[in-house]
Structures are given as structure tokens and as C-alpha cells.
């Protein structure tokens, strides 16, 4: 099984496919990010762009979506104009 790492930024997004040893086996990039949501007022462009990016990267690696065990996301994807807002927590010193 493989893992998909999705890094969504303001303007560009990247997908890294990792093998069982956590080595990068494929990388894809696409000019799509939360900026598109801010401009259009809709998450649709971001959703469709990330879907295409993931599908193309998986296919280019000779894999199928079913070969991806899980995905891990980072970046602006969790902002209020990303796909799903996850509130930030304040880190406190112990």
C-alpha cells in the first residue's frame, strides 16, 4: 500500500506518493490552491483541481486509487477557505 501526502498552498498544490518504506515514488504539482476559493467564492475549483492532481499522480506512478491506503494533508487546505477548516490550537509551554 502507498500513502498520498497532499500539500495545498495558496497558489499551488503538490502530491507526493510514498511507498511502504516512506520513500517518494511519485510527485505531482498543479497550479490550484485556496486563492482560487478566495477569488471565486466557491471551493469547487479547489476540490476538482486536487482530485485531478491526485488521480493523475497516481496514474502516472502506475498505481490505482485503491493502492492508496491513506492520505495526509497539510497547508492551507485546513484554512477557512480550504476544503475543511480545522481550528488552530495555541501551543503552550509545559
Major pleated sheet:
4 strands, mixed
* Count of separate DSSP helical elements: 2
Query: How big is the Rg?
Result: 14 Å
Structural class by sheet pairing and helices: alpha+beta
- Share of helix, binned: 25-40%
Uncertain runs = none
Overall 3D form: flat
Strand content: 25-35%
Instruction: Give the strand tally.
Output: 4
Main sheet strand line-up:
3-2-1-4
* Topology as a string of helices (H) and strands (E): EEEHHE
Distance between the termini: 38 Å
Mean pLDDT: 95
Q: How does this structure look, described?
A:
With 94 residues, the chain is an alpha+beta fold. It is built from 2 helices and 4 strands. It has helices spanning 34-40, 44-60, and strands at 2-8, 13-18, 24-30, 68-75. It has a 4-stranded mixed β-sheet, with helices on one face. The longest helix is centred in the middle third of the chain and has 17 residues, at 44-60. The mean pLDDT is 95.
What's this model, at a glance?
With 94 residues, the chain is of the alpha+beta class.
Descriptive tags:
single chain; 94 residues; four-stranded mixed β-sheet; alpha+beta; 2 helices; 26% helix
Chart the SSEs and their pairings.
Layout: E1 2-8, E2 13-18, E3 24-30, H1 34-40, H2 44-60, E4 68-75
Parallel strand pairs: 1-4
Antiparallel strand pairs: 1-2, 2-3
